[in-house]
Amino acid sequence: MKHIAAHWQILAALVLATFTALVFRGMVAGAGMDSQIGGFVGAVLAGCEFIGDLFMRALKMLIVPLIVTSVVSGIASLQGVKGFGRLGLKTAGFFGTTSLLSILLGLLLVNMIRPGFSDGQPNAVIRDAFAQSAATADARVVETVSGAGNRQAGDFLGVFKAMLPENVISAATDNGQMLGVIVFSILFAVAITRLPAVEMRTIREFFQAACDAMIVLTKWVMALAPIGVFALILPVVFATGADLFVNLGKYFLTVLAGLFIHLFVVLPCVLRFVGGVNPWAHFRAMRPALLLAFSTASSSGTLPVTMRCVEEGSGVSKRVTSFTLPLGATVNMDGTALYECVAVIFVAQVMGVQLGFGGQFFVVVAALLTSIGVAGVPSASLVAILLILKSSGIPGAETAVVALLAVDRLLDMSRTAVNIYSDSCAAVVIARSEGEELGI
């Protein structure tokens, strides 16, 4: 029997999980969660949450060893510090440019669509929903928002400290400190290039072999992706259903429109006119990673698959992917930056705050900086939005964010897909600029 491609398996799991969740919602709506049917549905959901957690743990298990081995082997293969510096400047330039483009796109759409207004006036229904959500939200959500709300602008200076961890082993066990692991790996790889030739070759070959072994492990975990995706999506759709779009439909459509345009228009134009490659061919190669990113809402968790798709599907060398993709999964957040911009302007519209050119310029700059700077901070988007709202003097920041967070899952999944696709585009464009012949 012909093998079914990975992206079709994952897509089938997404559709089946959505259909099953909607059927379960219908069953529970008629019988109630306290009934025998409700008990059965609850047991299935609990089982899915357990299996989904195991799948995410398996993916996250790969992250640290994959980052260390790929970054060290990739940079150690460069021609000394000069080759690394050139690659670093190109990567930083690409990340900054595409993030700025995504923010400006979000700003344009939110000002055109004006999702926070109804009949030309701030939407009072949504404003009331903000207040109500604070009273009815899950206690854990409220606690998270309250903790994030206590952060100050100076707290983000801690990101620079995180770049140089006191204990790299300890940093590797903390998802918020992956930037430190990457910086250490880069410095270690550069140090290898300064060793005598025999020693340098021995260490480089060791890390190259370790990286190849991690790719094999990734293939094993990816064989379970359809099951993991089904288990992750079913509880989400069951919990949200169609109510996800009732009160905040216009806001959702604005964010999704921005993400869609950035994914299918802006980044393909960059690939075509800057990289000189076929955007559709690269998109086809990235389908498994995009679907997995959408399902897991984790850029770091998708990193092993992203690297595999870019190397095997688009033909980018390990030398480029090992540097650009781990770094991109940590600091390059096009989708997150666009989301932050739209969310802040939306809240300002609902609360009746008029942001002029200066205010909106501040939002653009803040979204650009925080999308990079808070990537190593837990609840990154939440922290960034609260910081921008407070810095802009917009009232009701905490209650507004609670409302947005309560219906944020689909947007989180969507912007994660955009984030990892932007990373992959960076790898392709930079590879072409380095003179590589790609397979697309």
Structure notes:
The protein is mostly helical and 440 residues long. The chain has a single domain (6-433), classed as Sodium:dicarboxylate symporter (Proton glutamate symport protein, Orthogonal Bundle). The chain has 19 helices and two strands. The chain has helices at residues 6-31, 36-76, 80-113, 124-136, 139-149, 158-162, 168-172, 178-192, 197-222, 225-240, 249-275, 279-296, 299-313, 318-331, 334-350, 357-373, 380-391, 397-406, 409-433; strands spanning 117-118, 121-122. The chain has a two-stranded antiparallel sheet with strand order 1-2. Helix 2 (36-76) packs antiparallel against helix 9 (197-222) and helix 2 (36-76) packs across helix 10 (225-240).
CATH homologous group name? Sodium:dicarboxylate symporter
Report mean pLDDT, rounded to a whole number: 81
User: Which descriptor suits the 3D outline?
Assistant: globular
Query: How many helices in DSSP terms?
Result: 19
Q: Major sheet: order of its strands?
A: 1-2
**What's the β-strand tally?**
2
Which sheet architecture does the biggest sheet show?
2 strands, antiparallel
CATH topology: Proton glutamate symport protein
Class computed from helices, strands and strand pairing: mainly alpha
* Separation of the first and last Cα atoms: 28 Å
Per CATH, the class reads: Mainly Alpha
The number of domains: 1
H-E order: HHHEEHHHHHHHHHHHHHHHH
Q: Assign the CATH architecture.
A: Orthogonal Bundle
